[in-house]
Amino acid sequence: MQIARVRGTVSSTQKDPSLRGVKLLLLQLIDEEGRIQPEYEVAADTVGAGVDEWVLISRGSAARQIYGNEQRPIDAAVVAIIDTVYVENRLIYSKKEQY
């Protein structure tokens, strides 16, 4: 799994039929120190995340283990909205402090 920040949404009028109704998010990856990385990922949103929230993503075949995604052509899925991240007893991120 990987931590990422929601940067926006991705929409498409022409897509695989199995993706109809699936919300796609543009995510920017975050390292263990809370620094934004240059890598981006598009992921199916399974939890209702919004722009600027930090999320946990599952990638690869694990993204298709989520109920309802078994037959979808996805390789990344948002599986949680993060409340806090601590590294070595140091607060890296707090959703509460962002708002």
From TrEMBL:
Its job = Probably forms vertices in the carboxysome, a polyhedral inclusion where RuBisCO (ribulose bisphosphate carboxylase, rbcL-rbcS) is sequestered. Has been modeled to induce curvature upon insertion into an otherwise flat hexagonal molecular layer of CcmK subunits.
| Record-linked PROSITE patterns | BMV
Any Pfam family the entry gives: EutN_CcmL
Q: Which family does it belong to?
A: Belongs to the CcmL/EutN family. CcmL subfamily.
Q: Does the keyword Lipoprotein apply?
A: no
Its UniProt domain note says:
The tight homopentamer forms a pore with an opening of 4-5 Angstroms in diameter which opens into a wider tunnel at the base of the truncated pyramid. The pore is positively charged.
The cross-references to InterPro entries, in alphabetical order and at most eight, read: CcmL, EutN_CcmL, EutN_CcmL_sf
Q: Which GO terms describe its cellular component?
A: carboxysome
The organism named in the record is Plectonema cf. radiosum LEGE 06105
Source taxon at top rank: Bacteria
Alphabetized CDD domains for the sequence? EutN_CcmL
- Presence of the UniProt keyword Signal in the record: no
**What keywords would UniProt list here?**
Bacterial microcompartment, Carbon dioxide fixation, Carboxysome, Photosynthesis
Q: How does it assemble?
A: Homopentamer. Interacts with full-length CcmM.
**Name of the protein in question:** Carboxysome shell vertex protein CcmL
Q: Which GO terms describe its biological process?
A: carbon fixation; photosynthesis
Q: Where in the cell is it found?
A: Carboxysome
Q: One MF term from GO for this chain?
A: structural constituent of carboxysome shell
